[in-house]
Design a protein that fits this description.
Length: about 350
């Protein structure tokens, strides 16, 4: 009896951690105390004992149980008390559940053993389970057992605790959803439309075709350029000291270049910004680029396609007039214009 009770208590300890939800494969562990009333022909008075139980669920309401218990009972006619053990296997079902309470029905076979009688038999069970927490409950069983040897009928009452352990799973049915957020249109707006992209690509292709034709075509087949238009495109503009703001005279020069641009749709130029010698090299390089960009921005504002104008800076490199002095500095603060199309092919604006 002590061994069986010990097994029952050990089963409860090993059951932790328990699992609240009963699913297929869930294991039930239980320990209980018992009170058994034996048939009169056995000469045994009612006995007290205990035991343990382990069960496996086939469905959430149907399970197979294995149970072992023992009792200690006195005997009549002055005979010594006797220990009795019983092993049982049964099927159980929970047909009704109301809140925390579930009714229990079952039946199976058993084996009863004392030192003076041993017998197999069959039994019926009716009971109830009451859930105390998500993983712990109370269980009460009434068992009616019929022994095949002598046709003795014994009655038992078991009361104890139950807990559950979920089966170990190689796979899980839990999914993790991850949302990967990419840059939205608002984070990086498109700078040009599809139409604008196509237009710029077309202009670049026409320019490349022009360069190819200029490289391959004989010069004698191409009309000579206008000297006045060529001089207009090469004319420099000047800036104030340490400044990159366009003066009125610079704007007039740029306006004349716009006329030539319009007459030569395939022409492109490079605007290079320069400075005078005072100032650090880094400062002058940055200032030269600002002056080139100022000229380009003005041409674009007057309708010139931005793809036709490139900018660069030389800073204080390649001084136009050597030596210190106001005159030299004024001449060196300039933007120069270099044509990317051969000079002889420049067309003059129509009058």
């Amino acid at each position: 009896m002590l061994k069986i009770v010990s097994v029952g208590l050990a089963a409860l300890v090993l059951a932790a951690p328990a699992h609240a939800q009963i699913t297929r494969g869930t294991i039930e562990f239980g320990g209980f105390g018992s009170r058994t009333s034996y048939a009169t022909g056995l000469g045994m008075n009612a006995g007290w004992g205990g035991g343990g139980r382990i069960g496996a669920f086939i469905t959430p309401s149907l399970s197979i149980e294995f149970e072992g218990g023992a009792t200690h009972a006195s005997r009549s006619l002055g005979l010594l008390p006797v220990n009795s053990s019983i092993l049982a296997v049964r099927g159980t079902i929970v047909p009704i559940t109301v809140g925390r309470l579930g009714l229990l029905l079952g039946g199976g076979i058993d084996h009863t053993d004392t030192y003076f009688i041993e017998s197999y038999g069959a039994h019926l069970l009716a009971g109830a389970k009451f859930r105390l927490t998500d993983n712990l409950g109370l269980r009460l069983d009434g068992i009616l057992s019929r022994m095949s040897n002598g046709n003795y009928t014994n009655k038992s009452l078991h009361f104890g605790i139950v807990t559950y352990r979920a089966p170990n799973r190689l796979y899980t049915d839990k999914f993790i959803d991850r949302v990967i957020v990419g840059p939205s249109v608002a984070d990086k707006p498109d700078s040009v439309s599809a139409y604008e992209t196509a237009r710029l690509r077309g202009a670049a292709q026409r320019y490349q075709a022009l360069r190819d034709s200029l490289r391959l075509a004989p010069v004698v087949l191409v009309p000579m350029s206008s000297e006045a238009a060529l001089a207009t495109m090469r004319q420099m503009i000047h800036f104030p000291t340490e400044g990159f703001t366009l003066t009125d005279s610079a704007k007039r020069v740029l306006d004349q270049k716009v006329v030539v641009f319009n007459a030569n749709p395939d022409m492109r130029i490079v605007i290079t910004g320069y400075t005078s010698s005072p100032g650090t090299g880094e400062y002058n390089m940055a200032l030269g680029l600002k002056r080139a960009n100022a000229a380009k921005d003005y041409l674009v504002s007057r309708g010139v396609d931005p793809i036709r104008v490139e900018v660069s800076t030389k800073g204080e490199g390649k001084l136009l007039v050597e030596g210190p002095g106001d005159y030299a500095n004024a001449e060196n603060r300039r933007s120069q214009f270099r044509l990317l199309v051969a000079d002889p092919f420049l067309a003059a604006p129509k009058p």
